[in-house]
Amino acid sequence: MITRALAALLLLLSLCTLPAQNEKEARLNEFRALSQRLKYQQGKISLGDNLATLDLSDKYRYVDPAGTETLLTGIWGNPPSGEKSLGMIVPADFTPFSQQAWCVIIRYQNDGYVKDNDAEKINYTKLLKQMQESVREGSKQRVKDGYPSIELVGWATPPRYDQQTHKFYWAKELKFGDTPDEHTLNYNLRILGRRGILELNAVSGMSQFSQIEKATPDILAMVNFNQGSRYADYTPGADKIATYGLAALVAGGIAAKAGFFKGLLIAILALKKFLIIGVIAVVAFLKKLFGGKPQAPSAPDTTEEPPVRPQ
After folding, report:
1. Which among 93, 96, 188, 283 is most buried, taking Cβ atoms within 10 Å?
2. CATH topology of domain 39-267
3. What gap in Å lies between CA 164 and CA 158, rounded to an integer?
4. Alpha-carbon distance 249 to 170, whole Å?
5. Is 10 helix (H, G, I), strand (E, B) or coil?
6. Using CA of residue 288, residue 292, residue 297, residue 301, what is the dihedral sign?
7. Domain ranges of the chain
8. What confidence tens digit (pLDDT) does each residue in 89-136 have?
9. Are 185 and 170 in contact (CB under 8 A)?
């Protein structure tokens, strides 16, 4: 009787696995096709309408705005951000299917000239507490919209501002949902200009923190406003002044924008649970039926080319 039940369950498992495997292969082919649209560039890259220049070393490559959107929404499954990018910076050995992949998205906000006279007066410990409360409130709407909850765990790197170069960076550690999976790193780099700010945001998991931390000086050095758009080119009385300072620049908009920067690993880890859920269910049933602890079949290998389920 037990043998017949086991045979029936194994047959059921094989019937369920085949369509799932076919679907996985189809999704992989779809993602591989999308990855072919990513056109990598090296050397000097002009950003915007003669706004800034990206001077890449041989350690990094550039992907244009169209390719950036394909990667973030088509391959990694992030919801559309509603904001246009100027492209992204990736390591020279970048592959969109690696769990170790990370990228830096470039955007421009023409909010005006940001005064930096409050740079040495900001209490970042107090600011963090205010941000955490703001994120908790914003998370409630995310959950209503069908996305995982979000929590600002703390600083991964406290804010640091260079008054000589007018370059600013900080990093936040974020947690999505209630699972114990790897937290997400939201690494922010800002370059102040005459009429606005270049925003560079790293998308990754916390395991890439040391890599991005090490790369930050290089990335900041490679991106600069062109003459006429630099911070030093500001003309008092003629140019627009931003309605916020450095503290608000760090705190502003995190709850609204966090859906975009939720990170590639969140999607990959969620997918792993999705792929093996059928196996877990069958193993649990076998354990209940026969007692003991049967060996679970190995989960599909998604390390190198994981199909990312759209959120």
Report:
1. 96
2. Protein Transport Mog1p; Chain A (3.40.1000)
3. 19
4. 11
5. helix
6. positive
7. 39-267
8. 999 999 888 878 899 999 999 999 999 998 989 999 999 999 999 889
9. no
